Amino acid sequence: MPSVEEALFWLPTVAAAIMAILAVIAAAARPGRMAKAIWIGATLLVGAGAVAATAWYQVQSRAELPAQAAQLRDLGTRIDEVGRPLPAGEAPAAAENFETFPAAIDALNAKLAELGSRIQALREKTKNREIDPETAAKMTDYLRQAGGNRVVVSCVPDDVEAYGYANQIANLLRAAGWDAHGPEETAIFGNAPGMGVTVFVHAGGQPPPAAKILLDAFARFNIPYKSGIASSEANPDPATVELFVGHKA
Q1: What does the alpha-carbon distance between residue 158 and residue 64 come to, in Å, rounded to a whole number?
Q2: Which residues neighbour 164 within 8 Å (Cβ) at sequence distance 6 or greater?
Q3: Can you tell me the mean pLDDT for 97-122?
Q4: Containing H/E element for 150?
Q5: How many angstroms separate the CA atoms of 187 and 246, rounded?
């Protein structure tokens, strides 16, 4: 029993045959034997030609399907090659099916969606950390209430992105009237990656008031951060707060 897909494939040819039959019936109803014979002959000739041409086109189209499927598979392979160096995205890998044209289009669309997700993941990974100008201006105004406090800003060595982010924070603090030093490169706090700034205070005793003000500012303006305790070697001055920027996660 022919499948639905097979029946739909031959539908144009069947439609052409039906139209030819209807045309012959209409011609047979014309008055006059000679005129009727001419109309029937002409209709049969044209109808048969239309059916034959439609069937030939359908057969040719079916013969070209394997080549088209191969081209689509090749395109899918090239999409995979483009996406291979990219980080994994959120879209799941779709099952490949290039047996029919609609299935091939669905498979390629799924590949493109996955590739777009991986490109977005790469953008997020390579995007520099920064505080937008509007937030920076508000944060500067907020920190002016504690101007004069001493803070040292540092970052991991040999990391341009981390240095740039640390430099922006140091400039923001100086603009707010803080006694901000740095950014300095140091490996004393390790090199574990993270998105936020680590606020280090001296081990032992009460944290300086500047630490609480900075933590409140980071929380208020949605700046990623975490707190930590530094050894006396890393931060010998109990009144000094150390802001450390590590590698980006």
Answers
A1: 57
A2: 128, 130
A3: 68
A4: strand 150-155
A5: 9
How does pLDDT run across 177-196, given as a tens digit for each residue? 999 998 999 988 888 888 88
Greatest mean pLDDT among 10-19, 66-75, 203-212: 203-212
Confidence (pLDDT) at 192? 81
Q: List the strands of the sheet with 241-245, edge to edge.
A: 179-185, 150-155, 241-245, 197-202, 225-230
Q: CA Rg, the chain, in Å?
A: 37
The confidence score (pLDDT) of residue 143 equals 95
What does DSSP say about strands 197-202 and 241-245: parallel, antiparallel, or unpaired?
antiparallel
**Residue 62 has which token pair?**
């079916």
Measure the CA–CA gap between 97 and 74, rounded to whole angstroms.
13
**Residue 56 tokens, joined:** 């030939």
Are 194 and 159 spatial neighbours (Cβ–Cβ below 8 Å)? no
201 sits in which H/E element:
strand 197-202
